[in-house]
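Continuing the batch. This is chain 6 of the set; chains 1 through 5 are on the previous pages. Same settings as before, nothing changed between runs. Recording input and output for traceability.
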Amino acid sequence: GQFRFLRSSAPWLILAATLLANGGVFCWYSYVNPVLTEVSGVEEEAMTAVMMLAGFGMFVGNLAGGRLSDRFTPARVARFFQGMIFFVLLGLFFLARIEWLAVSLMFLATASLFAVSSPQQLLILENARGGEMLGAAFVQIAFNLGNALGAWLGGVPIECGLGVRWSALPGAAMALGGFAMFAIYCRRFGRPALSK
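Output for chain 6:
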């Protein structure tokens, strides 16, 4: 009976969007050190501070995603930040050679990744009635599978000799796919929970 919620397309859209959202960022973020040091020109000694900034972005994004989900619907917040991930990854591809922009976009990428997290978890719980524990487990599986898939896909252009900067492009494609999943969800199921 706990698997009954999987008969609806809503949780599948959320799980697919979660996989694609996280995978998209991790296509690029898995190679953040060589991108920033070899392409952007960040000094090796500065990378500890840069990684602290990335962690601060995750912190800020997590707070923002939760607060905004209270004010707006989680589906709209997730869709917005997923779209933002797409544009940030494109920016990281085209502007990676400009050090301050690359670091700023890295902050926005990690903030957006964690801003999507809270709405995703709220959405899966809303759409897993009677199977909340399984829904919560599935969304973590999708998150981790996206991380692994993203790291692998981000490495494909590098192995083809295109350079580490190109890891952002498959990430942008995944992010666009995640945005599409959230857009479909919003159109079909995105009303606030109280109006359902």
